[in-house]
Amino acid sequence: MSAFGDDVVNFSSVLKMAYNFLSGRDYLKKLKFREKKKLISVVLPFSDLVFAAGGVPVFPIRMESFVLNQYLVALNSASSFLGWGLTSKLLGFIKQFDALKILDTILDDVIKSINIKYNEMCDLGVESGISSDFCYGIKNLFGMHVSKGKNVDASLYFTIRCSAFNKYHESLKLLVPKQLWVDIPPRNIGNSEELLAEQLRKTIQNLEEITGNNVTDNSLNKQFRISNQIKRYYKTILYEISASDFYPCNPATFAVILSLISISFQDLNSNSQQYLENMANLVKEMRERMRKGIGMDVSHMPRIMLTPMFGGWEPETQDILYEMGARTIYADWDVFGLLEEVNVTKNNDPIQEYAKFLTNATSKIGCDNNTLTDSYLATAERLNVDGMVFNQLFGCHSVSNCYSMLREKVRRTLEIPITYINFNKIGENIEQVKTRLGAYMEILK
Ligand code: SF4
Prior knowledge:
binds iron/sulfur cluster, alpha/beta, Rossmann fold, about 55% helix, disordered N terminus, 2 domains, four-stranded parallel β-sheet
């Protein structure tokens, strides 16, 4: 069993978030067949327009059936009459008598279940014809659409700097009934923001046709407000709680929570209001535990930012770093400007404001490595981390090749140690990762 787990049973918000992620299949079936909602596949955290149109954004892996820890299922049933708060208190009480340590495996099982499915999707992608030379992320996104693409009504895609990613989306043509594209101009020059706003209007029209609902300024602003609030909680966890000398749980659990938020942030578990409530509860539960002194003194443990992880990473890394005496921080969405808020000031045009938000995000990702490395640098500086581990993905020619430039800048400007690890597939390279991180930790000490 991994290092975490033993203290997560007291976090009802985390258990609920994990349950909502893993039980997506039944939830989405209910929305599609009983409530006649339209499902729109999204990758990366661009789900606001779908919510505003009354559709259901779905990160496609959530349509798969996962092996659910039986206690998580029982918990969900118990929570329907006790509420999640009481359920986790009850769990905390039962845990004292759990000599077999069965409860400790809840979060372990969640993560295991997600990882097995990610690898399965990657294999399916390759078997179905996507070149094995592509990065892990693209292979498994393709596999997810081979597996469940026919169940969605459309896919919504925003172009990013990676040409392989844009090519992958083109290849979904035969797998999804309809494709919606938003081409974000790579640079903010001339009237590019206006052109982007125009494209967003067209995409909204398409979404209206698919869902049969009208999108108004009010429905857009309402959704942006919900997302803004979620981002505020996300930033509180990253900037306030992760920077504290006392954690509400052990740092390995904390890293698992960050990774779960990072994955589920893409479609907000298909229910933004519920996700907001979970995030609010998570911050509340964390603060309460810290106030009561429940958790762990982590003042002696350096904070390491591991990035990028959105295209696939080895989750075991966070355990390895923990066992070596460090804490792992994941902040990809912040690096790429996706935790910035959309301006919802009265009388502003929400579509224009969303175009501004997207333009700002694109300027952080950048077309060139200089801009991208500056974004990594700026986030590491804001988070005040003690070190950085760069995750180099096999098959990535867009982001991974900025490492040497990043290393120079980090050493020169931040003066913190940086290293890289290689990633091809979950579970494949663990011994090498251990060796590299072992040497790295010697420098950090
Ligand atoms: S990991 Fe690299 S190749 Fe894969 S989608 Fe991201 S930028 Fe593109």
